[in-house]
Amino acid sequence: MNDFLHSLRTGKDKRYDRTRRGNDNMPYRPGDRHNSMDKRRRGNYTKSNAAENAYLTIAKLLPPVKTLLETIVSNKKDFMEIEERKAAAMETIALYLQKIVGTGNGESDPVDLKKETADNQTNVVVSENTDEVPALVDTAPIDMIRDMRAQGLSYDKIARQLDVDNIPTPSGRGKWRGQAVSKLLK
User: Fold this and answer.
1) What is the value of pTM for the model shown?
2) Domain boundaries in the chain?
């Protein structure tokens, strides 16, 4: 404690003066009302130079705008030429197709096409065995599931028993699950 008091008395550690807060941090002080008008008028922004400044900015911007417009015009011309070439190619293709098919001018004979009905067709495959439709699921596991369900077993226990008995699932892969067993019975 004595060291603290001694340093204060001798002036080694000066305490911060709170009354000078505004002057210590000059770049971050709040805006000054008197100098704000002067800052706005500084530079080439006076009324007498306004027309001259506008002319200079327009003069700077004109060459780039002109080059942009020239490139747009040249691109549009190229696009028009491409479209004209496409149209000419489509017309020649249409003429060739008309010559091949023979419609349009009536110059060439149309191609004779046979109309076949189902009675005239010779390449029809007829299956001989249409009476029996194979079952999607084997009925043996369903009977076993019904018997186990009648005994009071849950779907999960029935699924475990079917796995132990090595009975394949309807898809033929994987293990039996209680949910699959309940779907089979429904």
Assistant:
1) 0.29
2) 47-107, 139-185
Contacts of 17 (CB under 8 A, 6+ apart): none
Tokens matching residue 22:
């505004």
pLDDT per residue, tens digit, the chain (186 aa), is 677 777 777 776 666 666 665 555 555 555 555 555 555 555 545 566 777 888 888 889 999 999 999 999 999 999 999 999 999 999 999 999 988 887 655 555 555 656 566 665 566 566 665 555 555 556 777 888 888 999 999 999 999 998 898 888 888 888 888 888 888 888
Instruction: Give the separation between CA 113 and CA 99, rounded to whole angstroms.
Output: 17
Quote the CA–CA distance of 177 and 159 in Å, as a whole number: 5
